[in-house]
Amino acid sequence: MNEVTLAPWPSVDHGAFGPVRRVKRSRIQKLGADLLHRNWVRIPHVTNHDDADITDLEALRKHSNLEGGAKLTLLPFLLRAVADVLKEMPQFNASLEDDYFVMKDYCHVGFAVDSPHGLVVPVIRDVDTKDVARLAREISELTMKGREGKLKPDDMAGGCFTVSSLGGIGGRYFTPIINAPQVAILGVSQSALRPTWTGDKVEPRLMLPLSLSWDHRAVDGAAAARFLVSLRTRLSHDDRTG
Ligand code: CAO
Prior knowledge:
This protein is α+β, with helices and mostly antiparallel strands and 242 residues long. The protein is built from five helices and eleven strands. A hairpin with a 2-residue loop joins strand 5 and strand 6 (118-120). Bound molecules: oxidized coenzyme A. Oxidized coenzyme A binds next to helix 3, strand 5, helix 4 and strand 8.
């Protein structure tokens, strides 16, 4: 393999330009940075974007919340829909190992949690077998453990795919970095009402921006586009194919 020669990293005396403070990075921040750098450099990433019309799903979610029980955000619905697409398209539920694809017959999905110590990714097991209420409870328990720094290595192991939701914060599309040895990751941004052509008229519809980053060694662009079409169809309960 040819070596890449890079210009040296800039060495700057920041203090020469004004006051600065040095803040120690946490163990999770340092470890996370090393893993993200490895994944960014080693995996040929491509990111596809699409929108799901979640107007009807949102009405259902709000209705369920009014009836009491575990509070449902969009995330449990997303995890369940992702698991269903992974069952339909097993090449996304796989890892690369030398001459082989390791195809997983289980469906464990991780989700990124923004914690005070840094980014952590707990994993929910067998997402394809659980209903949204159960997923909501597990998300809530694992998020709390993540924010309190109480996740065990086992809580973060064995993920087949990751969902990174920034929807509660804001933004429209981003390019998430794949969590190796997985071959794809879904980024979810904030839903918003947008004027949308529904076949005979333009209507305000609640649109959810989706971004799928995928490893071009493991899957190709047509499969990635189909993944997002299948996902948005499941979330929208519509049958658009294009
Ligand atoms: N569009 C619009 N609103 C959304 C939304 C979306 N896509 N997703 C969530 N919301 C709303 C929720 O419904 C909730 O609203 P109410 O309080 O009115 O009910 C609010 O935003 C906050 O939701 P939440 O973020 O607390 O809950 P969640 O289940 O959506 O997400 C968790 C949980 C743990 C994924 C999230 O809190 C988090 O940490 N996200 C950051 C992940 C991250 O850092 N990713 C980047 C990784 S790459 O650096």
